[in-house]
Amino acid sequence: MKKKNNKSRSKGAYTTWLLFGTAVLLLLGSVAGSSQAALTYYSENYSAELRMFDIGVTLMENGKEVSWRNYTQKDDEWDEGGSALLTYLLNNQEDGKETYGEIQPGRQYEEELCVKNTGNIDQYVRVMIYRYWVDAPKEGEDPIPVEEREKRRDISPEWIRLNPWIEKDGMPSESQGWVLDKNASTKERTVLYYTGILKTDEVSPPFADNLVIDKEVAKKVTTTETVNGNYKTITMTYDYDGVEFVLEIDVDAVQTHNAVDAIGSAWGVDVTVDADGNLRLGR
Amino acid sequence: MSRKQLYRRRTVFLAAFALILLFGSSLKDSLAYFTTYTTTRGSARLVLGSKTEIKEEIEGFIKKIQIVNTGDADCFVRARIYAGSLLKLTESESVPEGGAAHWRKDADGWWYYESVLKPGEATNVLSVEIGVSPELMGLDIDNFNVIVVQESTPVLYQEDGTPYADWNLSIKPEESEVTGS
Q1: So what's the pLDDT on residue A91?
Q2: Is A106's CB within 8 Å of B156's CB?
Q3: Distance between CA A61 and CA B172 in Å, rounded?
Q4: Distance from CA of A232 to the nearest CA of B (A)
Q5: CA nearest to A19 within chain B
Q6: B71 interface with A at CB cutoff 8 Å
Q7: Closest Cβ opposite residue B44 in set A13, A103, A230
Q8: What chain A residue is nearest to B162 in terms of C-alpha separation?
Q9: Segment A257-267 mean pLDDT
Q10: Residue B165's domain spans which residues?
Q11: What is the CA radius of gyration of chain B?
Q12: Alpha helices in chain B (DSSP H)
């Protein structure tokens, strides 16, 4: 009886190690397959051009590159950089005279925004535009970066009118190949998808062309009355004098190969792609 | 738990672990899509407030009015002069040598300064000559008032960049009073 038990136990252990060994062999086999393929490739007697697939995207403002992030063909190293939006726009008013970063309500400022494919693979792109107001630093206060300042939620983001995405004029659902994602957009955020494929070095049609601060912002005033001898002064103070508006833009790019799954995985949205490569939101 | 059961469990565990390792090694590749992104922002200050002051001199029966932009933003200004009906007011602009005329009297009774007044700048002089009528001389009064009211409004722009004033947005009406005798 004891002998039978020992035999059964050794059979169980044998099965265990056999299965484990098989699994390890399978695992090593999958790695060995790749190595073998690589060796076969290099053992050929003719030369082959080895091309790396690099993705890169750049935001253009009035024809100039303002922000980019391009893969550099090295392990997880990216060439990224740029400058702030609106800087040269504000410094080139009135025959090059500096305007000290101030903007006048109602005035139309050129703000042509495009996306350029600066990688070497085709891509789909989307942009997220954020518009909001923050308090300006007070006199004598150390400058605080815009992103660290408190948002002024009492001032409507709609007064930052980035044409053509203006609620007041009837927000379009698409413009020049850019389609609005209504479900993801809010008063502060506008999400746009470029429906075509953006090829290497290609610049998209502009998703915006000018910027206007709505004159409504100048209509909120507080009135105070003071009497000083023979003078009576009624002072109306503009509530929003000195506030700063912020325009923030995120650009996302993704490969066109296996686009539906890639976009679903990278951006978390459902899309369909037709035979010509045109993107449509939703399944 | 019997030893046999223990072996059986270990067998299943090791087999499952091996399968996870096997599929896990190929999982990373299938999730690696080419993606990138870039972000930037910019901001600009909104300038609305303008400050103006009346600067005036009185020479006999002539009141010389100027409005000075004491704020840090461009503005438009206008002025209006009030007096009793027995006083005859003659208003005119004194244009500096080599300068241009900017004051224009509108049908609404206001004098509009048609040039943008930049910070620190003053308007051309608007002179008001006060004429005392014989009826007033015959009355037993010892003083009279000439009141100047001025308003300013920030410069607004048409979309093509043309500056204009919206007087419904005017700020700081200021009155100055002169008493004569």
Answers
A1: 56
A2: yes
A3: 39
A4: 6
A5: B15
A6: no
A7: A103
A8: A107
A9: 94
A10: 52-180
A11: 39
A12: 3-31, 134-138
Contact call for residues A135 and A145 (beta carbons, < 8 A):
no
Q: Which of the two residues, A231 and B69, has the higher pLDDT score?
A: B69
Residue A4 CB contacts under 8 Å (≥ 6 apart), including other chains: none
Determine the distance in angstroms separating the CA of B42 from the nearest CA of chain A, rounded to an integer.
Answer: 4
Are A131 and B48 spatial neighbours (Cβ–Cβ below 8 Å)? Answer: no
In degrees, rounded to 5, the angle at the alpha carbon of residue B25 between the alpha carbons of residues A52 and A263 is: 55
What's the confidence (pLDDT) of residue A8?
A: 62
Q: Does residue B19 form part of some domain?
A: no
Query: Does residue B96 sit within a domain?
Result: yes
Whether B15 is covered by a domain: the verdict is no
CA distance B109 to chain A (A): 20
H helix or E strand, kind and range, residue A37: helix A2-42
The rounded distance, in Å, linking the Cα atoms of A253 and A258 is 14
Q: B1 in contact with A at a CB cutoff of 8 Å?
A: no
Provide the token pair at B49. 């407030």
**Farthest CA pair distance, chain B:** 133
A55 CB within 8 Å of a chain B CB:
yes
Domain count, chain B: 1
| Model pLDDT, residue A79 | 93
Q: How confident is the model at residue A50 (pLDDT cuts 50, 70, 90)?
A: low
Question: In which band, very low, low, confident or very high, does the pLDDT at B61 lie, cut at 50, 70 and 90?
Answer: confident
What average pLDDT does chain A have?
83
Does B151 fall in a domain?
yes
How close A48 gets to chain B, by Cα (Å)?
A: 23
Would the CB atoms of B38 and A67 count as touching at under 8 Å? Answer: yes
Nearest CB partner across the interface for B34, out of A55, A105, A108: A55
Q: pLDDT averaged over chain B?
A: 81
CATH of the domain at B105: 2.60.40.740
Q: ipTM score of the complex?
A: 0.76
